[in-house]
């Protein structure tokens, strides 16, 4: 059985993987403060995961997570159609996020996870503080 009906499938396929509004807002804040970064890049070779922002010299990877796809504790929703399929899919996303965090940490990276609903200025400040920490 397919995960969704054709209309829902088309809507889900249209979701951006990169350059989302929250991501762009955070990038603008960081760029405005003079920070430079790579966009949509794998931080570590051999780990098939891409971070939204990468600061390779400081070994900092930033992920801007969508509330739906990554099960935000404040805003997560679960579709009623094919509920078990979606529950499994979303749980797998969260497990993959934790696995990514662990793999990057093993390589000496700092991972920053930002929810899409967070204020871009506050989120950018968190990234700046991490980058400027000794």
Automatic annotation (TrEMBL):
Residues 1-12 have a biased composition (Polar residues). InterPro entries: DNA_mismatch_endonuc_vsr, Restrct_endonuc-II-like. One of its GO terms (molecular function) is endonuclease activity. Keywords: DNA damage, DNA repair, Endonuclease, Hydrolase, Nuclease. The keyword Hydrolase applies. Residues 1-21 are annotated as: Disordered. Coiled coil: none annotated. Belongs to the Vsr family. This is Very short patch repair endonuclease.
């Amino acid at each position: 059985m397919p995960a969704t009906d054709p209309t829902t499938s088309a809507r889900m396929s249209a979701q951006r993987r990169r350059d989302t509004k929250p991501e762009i807002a955070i990038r603008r804040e960081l760029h405005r403060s003079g920070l430079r970064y790579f966009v949509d890049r794998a931080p570590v070779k051999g780990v098939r995961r891409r971070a939204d922002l990468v600061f390779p010299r400081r070994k900092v990877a930033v992920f801007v997570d969508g509330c739906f796809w990554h099960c935000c504790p404040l805003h997560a929703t679960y579709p009623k159609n094919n509920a078990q399929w979606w529950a499994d899919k979303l749980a797998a996303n969260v497990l993959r996020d934790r696995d990514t965090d662990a793999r990057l940490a093993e390589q000496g990276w700092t991972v920053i996870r930002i929810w899409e609903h967070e204020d871009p200025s506050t989120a950018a400040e968190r990234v700046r503080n991490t980058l400027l920490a000794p």
